[in-house]
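Notes from hallway chat w/ T.B., transcribed later so I don't forget. T.B. wanted the structure written out for a chain they're using in a teaching module, and asked if we could keep both sequence and structure tokens in one place. Agreed to drop them here.
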Amino acid sequence: MENRLSAGEDRRRTSGDRRHSSSRERILREIEARPASTADLVAATGLHENTVRGHLERLLADGHIAREKEAPSGRGRPSLRWRAVRDDAAAPYAGLAVALAEGLANTSAHPAREAKDVGRTWGARLAEDRAEGDARTLVLDVMREQGFAPDPAESDAEERTLLRNCPLLAAASRRSDVVCAVHEGLIEGLARSRAAVATAKLLPFAADGACILHLQVAS
């Protein structure tokens, strides 16, 4: 059973304005101290593995942590570890993104369509400053730099890539119709700068907390 925090003890608010339990806060502070695997957190907290996994999924959904792959050490797929997301740098931009997304949703008859157009323009501008290269490599490079943590190891024959992090998670959680449409357009704008035809479809939080990107490119 989890220990309850005393009335005067500080609690961290999540993006949904909920409050952490003492166990979830303990896990988060362990991760803030250093990146850790699930097994590391089980050992450090003494909590059951299923309990730790549940708290991790909630912290991931609320934008406090992100998943990353550890360097491979032998055969098999590399294991995952958890790292803290710096809220101090992201929060002002997340708030701005929410305000802009809600403004567009309230004033436009087709907010998702207009948001995607904005994203395409953004992607085209970013592509202008890039060295020549194929469309897919350009998209993955920019997604990595923008903080989406694309996972090429999870790509498959269906041209699917997992995006394991969202730099605007709080905004996307509230207005995914607009925020994710901007990101779709960004990807299309990048890809179309290198390919005759390119289409992007972004499925928010569709795979174990990650977003699924379907990118089709024709030269």
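Follow-up for T.B.: DSSP finds eight helices and six strands in the chain. Might be a good example for the class.
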